[in-house]
Design brief:
Largest sheet: 2 strands, antiparallel
Number of helices: 17
Radius of gyration: 23 Å
Number of strands: 4
Distance between the termini: 38 Å
Shape: globular
Length: about 500
Amino acid sequence: MSTSESAVEQRRLFGHPIGLYTLFFTEMWERASYYGTRALLVLFLVDAATNHRGGADMSVANATAIYGVYTGCVYLMTLVGGWIADRLLGQQRSVWHGGILIALGNYLLAIPAGIALTYIGLAVIALGTGLLKPNVSAIVGHLYPEGGARRDAGFAVFYSGINLGAFFGPIIAGFIGERYNWHYGFLVAAIGMTLGLIQYRLMLGFLGSHGKYPHQDADAARAARSRRRGWSLIGGGLVLLAILAALLYTGVLHFPVVALAQSMSVIIVVAVLLFFAAILTFGGLHGMERRRVIMIFLLFIGAAAFWSGFEQAGSSLNIFAERYTQRMMDGFLIPTGWFQSLEPLFVIVLSPIFGAMWVWLARRHLNPSMPAKFALGLIFLGISFLVMASAAEIVVHGNKAWPTWLVLCYLFQTFGELCLSPVGLSSITKLAPARYLSQMMGIWFTADALGSVLAGLAAGHLNPEDLQEMPGLFMRVVYVTLGLGILFAVFSRPIRRKLIGDIE
């Protein structure tokens, strides 16, 4: 590292490396783009093609299945994106190329040229997010090689950027898309990611060498062979994707999206079961390592169940907001997408409160254990859908529900997220055997992928022609999440004693 480069990396702003703000704004714009698109997607797919907004006129079942497959692929692609960064591109270039793909995908969505182009655009966004999302977070960690409280504080700043983007993305894209044309909303998301790319390029120098290069194998010849194999795999995959895209666009290839989502969920479950079976059987684990891997499997089940409800924000809850919520207030029609901004707003407001609460409880030796916090997360999610089941009863009786029902629902979901999500991510780093840490982090993202697919499939049962089923649809989520939450709560003490040990 040169002297000038070292000086750049040592510069601070408000106590943090300036490179942190490069990543803060990059992720802020990426999340604004992602959540802006998410707020519009299902509404665009189910909207009538005959009106001025240019909807796709699709059934609820197909639209929510597409949503589930798309959001599931976004998280699955993070496994591929991490591998590409480690082996081929390095994290900095992966973030850059990922951002380009995200912007390109949204520009494709902005073109009103049929559903096949929509599929292609969503696939490109998923590939780009897979490249950008895990690597931008990894670079944040590199900025704090000393670890400790400063790294935690840096991630807290970075996390606020995530939620800031998630807050204003749906507000802007939702307003433009719903008021004028869905494709204009996708264009807004594309412009947002473009602004993020410009900012990233202008401030790239502040990252110095952190994440600039891929992992270097000590054996130069072996490293060269590994890179050639890696690029061959990437090239072959891109050619296959290009052929599939061409077949879709020309109408030669059709696929049943609901069946695709169902198959995808089965494949993920089977792959995860085989992975854990292989690790436990052939992974060379000793007693406590084996028990902690079992604990990670239990956390995977809890996380997948949580995300299967939480990720319905963009599907069933979005449809409920559009069709069955009283949105006219003093002559102003509240855009449906604005409800998607509630949860990130609550996260921004409540995160410091929850953080202070955990510290206060820990000082008094009352801090809930890892499984107990998972139990709280699942129970809060169950309560949020109990709220929606009550709101659905109002709709069944011929009335529209007030927005306060959705506000309360998203508030309880935020309580659940703040109990489960940060704790789960931290728990993986503590529980996973060191030699399997990256793979176990991939399993955490896979839980989100599975939950997203299941959320899309569950939302597909929301039948506008039979509103009597709506309370039952929400109650099914209540039964699953509350049931699992109670199990985690009841067995939290023996789980902590037998499967976790003293790492907390």
